Amino acid sequence: MAxxxxxxxxxxxxxxxxxxxxxxxxxxxxxxxxYPTNKGLHHAYEKIEEIGEAGFVAMDAxxxxxDISKKLETEDLGILGFNVEAPVDKLTDLxxxxxxxASYLAEKSPLIIRKSAMSVEKxxxxxxxxxxNQIGNIESAGGSGQGHAIMAVRFTEDNFCGxxxxxxxxxxxxxxxLPLSGxxxxxxxxxxxxxxxxxxxxxxxxxxNTKCVGAICNIDATHKPTADxxxxxxxxxxxxxxxxxxxxxxxxxxxxxxxIKGNALSMNVKDMDFSRAIGSWDQVPITTSYNQGTEGLFxxxxxx
Length: 304
Known about the structure:
six-stranded mixed β-sheet; alpha+beta; 7 helices; single chain
């Protein structure tokens, strides 16, 4: 597995700034682990339904069967993309007559990529939480359903990870740029003469492991997570097993985690700085993202 920055260094070194634009405001996309597809824009994988177990037997006794029951599944890649279109007269006025659309793209596309990536990250966080809710690996802190959430995610190869096509970087960039009308001017649907281009990157996420995510939702000022709840969340995600585990939450929720730390905080007369920073929980790194919204979807969860 690899992060988007590692993938970019290997396949998209011609335009390294693109991956920076994707991740600069998206810390979850920055730490997410991606796995190469085995069929281009599709990924075939075996969904393990049952695994036999070894056991101790008497001398000369038959060994227990350890067959693995599998089901072949296929995941299609999605498209992270957008279209850019600008009128010829406007481009000429702003950038002159020497390839004005290229100048326009160089200025505007990074802003579009950043905003688009933030939207994708918000959808991904919601996807993690919805999956945790679906498999019963979520606990409510007791709020109204409009609070924040904390989740533990363990990225593992071939069943809980991002997917990318290793052959999909023909232009040496994270995004393929496809000029419309062969790069020439054309009339759009409103009859305006324009230049245009499509930006496409083929990525997706495969969530197919019930032991890779745990969450606490409905957290607010009067309904806070406890240390035991965070420990239980990590246990549901099997933190410490193979793969890469991260705790993900909104920066506003960190004050509740810091409050737990504060109970054990000690200082002496030589300390010159009062730091309430906390970067991990039991050695599991914490990633905060402003792209995480409130979790109203989980108002139906009750405290056990």
